[in-house]
Specification:
Layout lengths: L24 H21 L2 H8 L3 H29 L1 H15 L9 H33 L4 H21 L6 H25 L17 H36 L4 H20 L1 H8 L1 H21 L3 H15 L2 H42 L2 H22 L7 H8 L4
Helix pairs in contact: 1-4, 1-5, 1-6, 1-7, 3-4, 3-5, 3-13, 4-5, 4-7, 5-13, 6-9, 8-9, 8-12, 8-13, 8-14, 9-12, 10-11, 11-12, 11-14, 13-14
């Protein structure tokens, strides 16, 4: 079915007779690795209230500790990009995820904000390294398969987050945070070993991601578009990071939900995001990426206003579901379009901006929560959703072709 908007489709995302099977062993293994990443992060998220109580942290002190997680991730991201080029993104993916499985067990064994910050810095290093490497490997596979499958990898991440949050809620009573996160780390390590073995045995993708040749005009407009798309991803992931670290606290502190129900709240958000990403490829083909991204941002904005300001648990949960559906495809579609416009450099730039939003969201919310209140702080997620919708619409706005582009596409001589 043709796209309803006029955005050209990059050849690397089109099915091709010589392309490998859609569900190759490498794709299945990489999807499992995305799922493990989401599972481990969600396992930590649902235990944040326990760890906060253990170290006696205020909102702002917890925000500082979470900022250490951000700092650890940001510090390794540029290095990981170079390591992916030198050693291959698949090898770096497996090594980074192995580090993450160890680091996730450390926070419950800290007894001060300072030691928690140090543990979260290591956790952030593993998380940031894994996410940069995984997306690099995913971009290679999208080019190799010549199918628009990027949302399916992020659906794996969301599914892992759903499983981690659900299991964390069930274990909130029977197991301490230390035991729960240790078992999560062991499970993640086992899956990483199995999936990583298959991924490393499969031949590496040889197809390259190249910039679009007809839509962007000269290099400067392409860079401008990549920046817009990166900011779209940043606003989207700002909301993801904020909900990951503060949704359970909002439910327990502001609407007085139990620990198990608070964990279910994050699970409802993760389930909605998973469902949205599983249908992301079809929705993008049916309505076009521009309409899907714009509608998603507005939906997330409305849902977050409900979740932040509603006085009852059912309304808050409904708001979280709308946020999950709205944010579901903003990040993967922004990264995919950035690759179309700017090639590998576009993917790297947009990914760095995007994950930066996920990492700065939690500490910003923490400081705003102490300055005003947590519900008021969470309304910034609604503003970010509206901003993402506006930027997506701007990035997909039809642009006049330059004379050079017209000559290139029509065959006219200089």
């Amino acid at each position: 079915m043709p796209l309803l908007n006029k955005t050209p489709t990059h050849p690397a995302t089109l099915p091709h007779p010589s392309a490998p099977s859609a569900w190759s062993a490498a794709r299945i293994s990489l999807t499992a690795i995305f799922a493990v990443d989401g599972f481990l992060f969600a396992s930590w998220v649902v235990r944040i209230p326990d760890v906060r109580a253990q170290v006696h942290a205020s909102h702002s002190a917890l925000g500082l500790a979470l900022l250490c997680l951000s700092a650890g991730a940001v510090a390794v991201m540029p290095v990981i990009g170079r390591l992916c080029v030198r050693f291959g993104s698949r090898r770096v993916t497996v090594a980074a995820l192995a580090l993450l499985t160890v680091a996730v067990a450390l926070p419950p064994h800290t007894h001060s904000v300072l030691s928690l910050g140090a543990a979260l810095a290591l956790f952030g290093a593993g998380y940031g390294a894994a996410n940069v490497a995984m997306n690099s490997a995913a971009v290679e596979l999208v080019a190799e398969l010549r199918r628009p499958v990027m949302p399916s990898f992020h659906a794996g991440y969301s599914l892992g987050g759903l499983l981690g949050a659900s299991l964390g809620g069930l274990l909130a009573g029977p197991l301490t945070a230390g035991w729960a996160l240790a078992l999560s780390g062991l499970f993640g390590l086992a899956v990483t070993a199995a999936a990583g073995t298959v991924l490393l045995r499969e031949p590496r993708a040889t197809a390259a991601v190249a910039p679009a040749a007809t839509a962007s005009g000269p290099l400067v407009p392409a860079r401008y578009l990549v920046l817009l798309l990166g900011l779209t991803a940043l606003f989207s992931s700002y909301g993801e990071g904020a909900l990951a670290d503060w949704a359970t606290l909002h439910l327990t502190d502001d609407v007085h939900a139990s620990a198990g129900l608070a964990a279910f709240g994050y699970a409802a958000y993760a389930f909605a995001m998973t469902a949205g990403r599983l249908g992301g490829t079809w929705l993008a083909m049916r309505f076009g990426p521009a309409r899907l991204m714009t509608a998603g941002g507005l939906t997330a904005s409305a849902g977050m206003l409900v979740a932040a300001l509603a006085p009852s648990v059912p309304l808050v949960l409904a708001g979280f579901v709308l946020v999950g559906l709205g944010l579901a495809n903003l990040f993967p579609l922004a990264i995919a379009r950035a690759g179309q416009e700017g090639g590998p450099h576009g993917v790297a730039t947009a990914s760095m901006l995007g994950y930066g939003g996920m990492l700065i969201g939690p500490p910003v919310i923490g400081f705003l929560a102490d300055a005003a209140s947590l519900p008021i702080a969470l309304t910034t997620v609604a503003a970010a959703g509206a901003g993402a919708a506006a930027l997506a619409a701007l990035a997909h706005r039809p642009r006049a072709r330059t004379r050079a582009t017209t000559r290139a596409t029509t065959g006219t001589a200089r």
